[in-house]
Amino acid sequence: MNPEHTSHTSHASVRLIEEYARGGTGLAVDEVWALEAHLEKCRDCRDRLSAAVTADAPAVAALTEAVWSDLEHRLASAVPAPARRLRARLSAWTTPAMTPWLAMVLAVALLALLLDLAGPGSGQVSLVLLLAPVLPVCGVAASWSRGLDPAYELTAATPRAGLQLVLRRTVSALAVVIPALLAGGWATGVTAVQWLLPCLAFTSLTLALGGVIGVSRAAVALVAAWAAVVVAPTLATSRTAAALQTEGLPVWGLLLALGVGVVIARRGAYTVLGAHR
Amino acid sequence: MPAVSRADIAPTAYAWEIRASGLKVRVGRDKMAVDGLDLSLGTGVHGLLGPNGAGKTTLIRALATVLRPAGGELELLGEAAGGLGEHRALRRRIGYLPQEFGYYKRFTVREFVEYMAWLKEVPKADIPGAVQRAVERVGLADRADARMKTLSGGMVRRVGIAQAIVNDPPILLLDEPTVGLDPAQRLRLRELLQELGTDACVVVSTHLVEDVAAACTDVVLFAEGRLVFQGTPGELAAAGGPEHLGDSPLERGYSALLQNPVRAGGAW
């Protein structure tokens, strides 16, 4: 409730206000106290006091006039603090440490796209499809890493640290990466169905594992596992691995659900320093 | 000063802002950096003193709830602070300056303190006022719109203190706040600490005995994860005699309590 607009059942009497404007010598101490407490909250009575001062106490009115005229040219020259609202709003979703990593992720996506478009000789394997599931993981890791975020310890000690902040930063990483991959997939004919679910599953697994061993370590481990289990065999045999074909989708869905479940169950883990390794 | 609200004058439901009994905090796999600590701290400035490696930083991190205790009890503002959980309500009332104060170079002082105020869930409408107040208290009002990368080391440290006090915390934890300050800034910081200590529980870790003498109402001497001594600076000074190592009464008391009376030749 805004005290300025509170409807008061009683206002200060004309007598009180006029006495107060003349210096308050005719008032009891407790009356002055009560009146001042009321004036702090009541705009109407302040306006009446101002009128009473102008009418009854020319000396006070002249003094305030003098102070105002003295201050006015200084106030006019004072510059209001610049409003950098954009950065404040951005930092609610990302950290400055994430920006170079997200740029790198976009560069890698672009490179994969160019290779796909330029090199039809690499068989039926699309690099965009191979890289898509692990690209957002890099952005997520950067958002929660001791080495990359200088303010990690400060952040970890605040009330907003924890699941909410992890999810905000993950969403912003996905918001950058997924549109880029969609565009790349559209250009090369890879459908989103093939990579979107693995991509989300990997992100949730990174967070789930990160609650135990630290987000950066989890990201490194999962990217290494992906490279060993899927990328290397695919490049060796020039065949899209089973994991990336439509038959693999239920498994990815299961992994996504598992990851999300673990993240929610262990949400307290992101509020301690351990998650920043 | 902020307006006084009903919550500010309500009686507290706890006897000590910080109360630990048998507290154990593990660092790494097998080292107990805090090992069975019993400690009660109320309002005032408490100097946490001890040799390097005594576990001061670990203790402060546990008090800031970023490390989970491995055993024992920890109560902050009357609320149990062990266990799993996000401690959101509790953390809103803690200010923390870590030993390694990391910041974003491209932010201005105001933006950085605003960002920290947002992270600390200061109500949106109060943020500009709270930030201005905090920046003024550390004497950086004229540099408020300068980028962090243009500041000197001492100024950066003061930004760190500004972010710690931006939420008017009843528990303020400062890990080595005087590092990098020149003598004049150190004096200003001590004044600020005394001012803050009148209505908050301020824990200052330091390895400089003179900081404690000048600013603290209470000394907590800590070695190898255990409490060695708790008392006033005067009591610390009284513990030492002329036979103990040190240049001031406090240093002699410090040496006496750490049972290190003989100057070992050439060793640190």
TrEMBL record, chain B:
<feature type="domain" description="ABC transporter">
    <location>
        <begin position="18"/>
        <end position="249"/>
    </location>
</feature>
<keyword id="KW-0547">Nucleotide-binding</keyword>
<comment type="similarity">
    <text>Belongs to the ABC transporter superfamily.</text>
</comment>
<dbReference type="Pfam" id="PF00005">
    <property type="entry name" value="ABC_tran"/>
</dbReference>
<dbReference type="InterPro" id="IPR003439">
    <property type="entry name" value="ABC_transporter-like_ATP-bd"/>
</dbReference>
<dbReference type="InterPro" id="IPR003593">
    <property type="entry name" value="AAA+_ATPase"/>
</dbReference>
<dbReference type="GO" id="GO:0005524">
    <property type="term" value="F:ATP binding"/>
</dbReference>
<keyword id="KW-0813">Transport</keyword>
<keyword id="KW-0067">ATP-binding</keyword>
<dbReference type="InterPro" id="IPR027417">
    <property type="entry name" value="P-loop_NTPase"/>
</dbReference>
<dbReference type="GO" id="GO:0016887">
    <property type="term" value="F:ATP hydrolysis activity"/>
</dbReference>
<protein>
    <submittedName>
        <fullName>ABC transporter ATP-binding protein</fullName>
    </submittedName>
</protein>
